[in-house]
Amino acid sequence: xxxxxxxxxxxxxxxxxxxxxxxxxxxxxxxxxxxxxxxxxxxxxxxxxxxxxxxxxxxxxxxxxxxxxxxxxxxxxxx
Length: 79
Hints:
The protein has about 80 residues and is mostly helical.
């Protein structure tokens, strides 16, 4: 699993845990909804600014997103 796909899975899971639509997350993070969709599908690589904007909107630390991403990649490689 590559970084973009892992980030997308983590982002989608976190968004759904908060019961947010892509549109709501886009508004909270001041990002475009289509960009959120591209990120969730692993079609775009997030910048540091994007990571911070999303983590603030999701009310978690950026490091938590990264930790979940790394764990996701590790688990995929292990299987």
